[in-house]
């Protein structure tokens, strides 16, 4: 079979992008042809994918996406018939992989009334409605219960076109136990003492990941914890805003910011606690990657995979609606009891028992099934 995969931008360290590439590779390994239409591609291009860079430009992101859609629509119409699989919301799609949360829900809960009067709102809402509207037929692969609830709430009748996927954690992230040697080597490299407490946050897009919440919670720690605590941020985004906030909170000397990288398991082994108080997150693979590596997690209920943290008992989850005071209190209490708690062992056990690794295979199964039916 032939598939056309549509994604605006690829870079190696985004969750959406990693999911796209793993699903594309799984389809190719099954003998299918995969054309990929992309605006920007950062990093090595796999030889087994037919990469097509869409040659359009625009002054605004909305216009750029509209130009992309028009160009791709014509290119696909002129090419051999294929099943169209999208990783961003847009018209044209036979199948949508829901890497992003519900836009209508986000606009309602995180934006003011006048946002709905903007061209940006009209564009993104129309592109989402082209997938979930009552007359549409696009099949959607979803990652979490939160997504299902939001899409069904804003687009009644779409429920029979929503299909659950298991997580797709890379199997090489699964470990039997925390590696003491790796931890010691990591902490020596970054000058972290045996008695220091290292908070780790991982993710591209610092604003939506709630880095401001993390720093505020750290700044609120009682002195006996704050003096021992360091914060490490790893991800792809502009750093100036984070650095300014850290200086304002008196945390500049305790903060290390590193770009996205491939050796994340070393960081999971070397840290004491993952903090991930995201404003909104469809899934949040880093929550599960940390859990199965034995690193305790502090996150928010707005993350799609936060229910895994509760199920595994591998950390704590702040309730919705978010309250900074709750995050502050949970951070302090977790750091106070980090050495005696069962979160690490619980996470390791969860990684050995649960189905956390088969998303690419399940997604490819569903894509094949829908392609045959279309």
From TrEMBL:
<dbReference type="GO" id="GO:0016757">
    <property type="term" value="F:glycosyltransferase activity"/>
</dbReference>
<feature type="domain" description="Glycosyl transferase family 1">
    <location>
        <begin position="183"/>
        <end position="347"/>
    </location>
</feature>
<dbReference type="GO" id="GO:1901135">
    <property type="term" value="P:carbohydrate derivative metabolic process"/>
</dbReference>
<keyword id="KW-0808">Transferase</keyword>
<protein>
    <submittedName>
        <fullName>Glucosyltransferase I RfaG</fullName>
    </submittedName>
</protein>
<dbReference type="InterPro" id="IPR001296">
    <property type="entry name" value="Glyco_trans_1"/>
</dbReference>
<dbReference type="Pfam" id="PF00534">
    <property type="entry name" value="Glycos_transf_1"/>
</dbReference>
């Amino acid at each position: 079979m032939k598939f056309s995969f549509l994604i605006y931008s690829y870079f190696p360290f985004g969750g959406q992008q990693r999911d796209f590439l793993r699903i594309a590779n799984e389809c190719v390994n099954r003998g299918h042809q995969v054309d990929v239409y992309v605006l920007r591609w950062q990093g090595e291009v796999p030889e087994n994918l037919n990469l097509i860079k869409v040659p359009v430009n625009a002054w605004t992101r909305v216009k750029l996406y509209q130009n992309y859609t028009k160009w791709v629509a014509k290119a696909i119409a002129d090419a051999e018939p294929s099943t169209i699989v999208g990783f961003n919301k847009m018209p044209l799609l036979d199948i949508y992989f829901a890497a992003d949360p519900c836009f209508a829900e986000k606009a309602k809960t995180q934006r003011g009334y006048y946002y709905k009067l903007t061209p940006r709102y009209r564009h993104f809402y129309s592109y989402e409605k082209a997938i979930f509207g009552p007359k549409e037929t696009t099949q959607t692969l979803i990652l979490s219960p939160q997504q299902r609830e939001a899409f069904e709430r804003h687009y009644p009748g779409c429920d029979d076109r929503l299909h659950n996927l298991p997580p797709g954690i890379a199997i090489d992230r699964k470990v039997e136990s925390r590696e003491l040697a790796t931890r010691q080597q990591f902490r020596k490299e970054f000058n972290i003492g045996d008695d220091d407490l290292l908070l780790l946050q991982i993710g591209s897009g610092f604003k939506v990941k709630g880095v401001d919440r993390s720093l505020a919670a750290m700044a609120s720690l009682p002195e006996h914890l704050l003096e021992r605590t360091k914060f490490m941020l790893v991800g792809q985004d502009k750093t100036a805003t984070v650095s300014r906030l850290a200086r304002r909170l008196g945390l500049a000397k305790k903060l290390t910011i590193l770009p996205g990288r491939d050796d994340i398991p070393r960081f999971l082994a070397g840290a004491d606690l993952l903090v991930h108080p995201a404003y909104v997150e469809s899934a949040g693979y880093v929550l599960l990657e940390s859990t199965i590596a034995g690193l305790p997690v502090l996150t928010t209920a707005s993350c799609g995979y936060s229910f895994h943290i509760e199920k595994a008992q591998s950390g704590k989850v702040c309730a919705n609606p978010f309250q900074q005071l709750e995050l502050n209190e949970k951070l302090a209490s977790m750091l106070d009891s980090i050495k005696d708690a069962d979160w690490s062992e619980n996470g390791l056990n969860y990684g050995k028992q649960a189905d956390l690794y088969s998303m690419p295979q399940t997604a490819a199964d569903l894509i094949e099934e829908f392609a045959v039916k279309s």
